[in-house]
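Onboarding guide, step 5: your first structure request.
Type a short instruction followed by the sequence, for example:

Predict the 3D structure of this protein.
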Amino acid sequence: MSALTMTPADRRWAAAVKERDNYTCRVCHLYFPDGWRVDLHAHHIFTRGRGWTRTDPENGVSLCMAHHTWAHDHPMGFQDWIEQELGSDAYVALRRRSLYVERPA
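The system replies with structure tokens like these:
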């Protein structure tokens, strides 16, 4: 994974995702207490290049380093897992929102 430029909005998004997930990896359920939270990553479900959902916390999941690497190395497996984790209806709705070309009504 290469280093990304994080805007203030990106940092707020990551903090909101981690807080919502109680500082716990959603795959292995490993908890990250104060002092260790830098090792917990907020991962976009649908690429951050899709502007409408880039800073939407619903488009994020907290992952430990191992599972963040897995998500990047096995994107189809990650997408299958997250669809099951969210439920198909929520997954499809989020995917549709991520594909908006114009501002949603």
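Each response can be followed by summary notes, for example: Residues 8-98 form one domain.
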